[in-house]
DNA sequence: GTCTATATGGTGATAGAC
DNA sequence: GTCTATCACCATATAGAC
């Protein structure tokens, strides 16, 4: 188990606070207090509040991009690719529940990296849509409401960070199977 | 068409700004500037920034509670009740896209009304869960993963405010039918 | 209904001692 | 690596003139 550097400690503490109140409502004094030090001391490890947000969001966004690239390059059936996307979201979300809150809710407070983030997100959604499209072409997926399907799946997957920490003794493999099943087959008997 | 009072004008302008940057990041100067007046002038119409947030969130939360009460009291089949819940979310979200952002993302900044809001939300989720449970008992809904189904449907419905404004020429009746279909029957062929 | 002026306190960040 | 002290600025909100 690699031990956290002081900088990583600051970043994960910040992510936790950002999840509770959002980036703008968390002050450097709040963060310092949660670490048991004074605000000025934070600046020995990080260069600015903005820098913390950047690290949290961009590293997560790039994880999704990398995961999607792997899924895309496979020759699996579309429905299997969709199951892999579900797995990707569950894995990343469960490993960084706090950071996912910033990725979802505080991206608009990015400064230098805003456009880069928006491009990553846009490309990710496009790749997701293309997999659904292929599923329609190969007769695996219903040929109706492509955008509604994409919106529904993405909304659910993006909310996992809110839901995962509320379930105790959660088996991630089981969750992936169950959630894939609900998203693909619906809820009716 | 009822014309907006100055107070209502302030509240709907605030909701728009809150959606873009979140409650904490919007200053009274931002809000005043968007209205074309000075910050001090706002206080002739509203008593505090907090008061604006309270009005936006509580009125929406109560709308959902009222809608759910109507749906619950009917004798319709469970799947029909679920379709009505979808319709309820689409109707409220499309009428108040900006306010829905605060309801979803800024509720933690409520002060006096925080507990009241949490109770409304908790009761709403409970009612939703009970409808699904009844659907299982009446053999309309698969008897598996109740919590996963609830989470998935609620996540999608709570994200409608992000998605509705991106679609031009959106027919709400059609969206309700299509979204219900995707949520109930899934996406596979 | 809006303004200017102002009170009071919080904000991110830096300098320099230990 | 942390501290105290401090800077320059921004926050919500009020008082009182027009």
UniProtKB/TrEMBL annotation, chains A, B:
The keyword DNA-binding applies. GO terms for molecular function: DNA binding. Residues 27-46 bind DNA. Gene3D superfamilies: Homeodomain-like (1.10.10.60), Tetracycline Repressor, domain 2 (1.10.357.10). SUPFAM superfamilies: Homeodomain-like (SSF46689), Tetracyclin repressor-like, C-terminal domain (SSF48498). Keywords: DNA-binding. Residues 4-64 form the HTH tetR-type domain. Pfam families: TetR_C_24, TetR_N. This is TetR family transcriptional regulator. The lineage of its organism: Bacteria, Pseudomonadati, Bacteroidota, Flavobacteriia, Flavobacteriales.
């Amino acid at each position: 188990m690699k031990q956290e550097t002081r900088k990583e400690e600051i970043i994960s503490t910040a992510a936790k606070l950002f999840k509770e109140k959002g980036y703008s409502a968390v002050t450097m004094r709040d963060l310092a207090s949660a670490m048991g030090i004074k605000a000025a001391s934070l600046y020995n490890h990080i260069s600015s509040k903005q820098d913390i947000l950047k690290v949290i969001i961009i590293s997560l966004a790039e994880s999704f991009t990398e995961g999607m690239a792997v899924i895309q390059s496979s020759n699996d059936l579309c429905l299997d690719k969709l199951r892999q996307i579900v797995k990707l979201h569950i894995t990343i979300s469960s490993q960084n529940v706090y950071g996912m809150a910033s990725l979802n809710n505080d991206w608009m407070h990015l400064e230098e990296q805003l456009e880069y983030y928006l491009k990553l997100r846009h490309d990710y959604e496009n790749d997701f849509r293309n997999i659904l499209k292929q599923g329609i072409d190969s007769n695996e997926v219903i040929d109706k409401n492509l955008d509604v399907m994409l919106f529904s799946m993405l909304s659910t997957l993006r909310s996992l960070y809110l839901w995962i920490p509320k379930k105790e003794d959660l088996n991630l493999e089981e969750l992936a199977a169950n959630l894939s099943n609900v998203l693909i087959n619906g809820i009716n008997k």
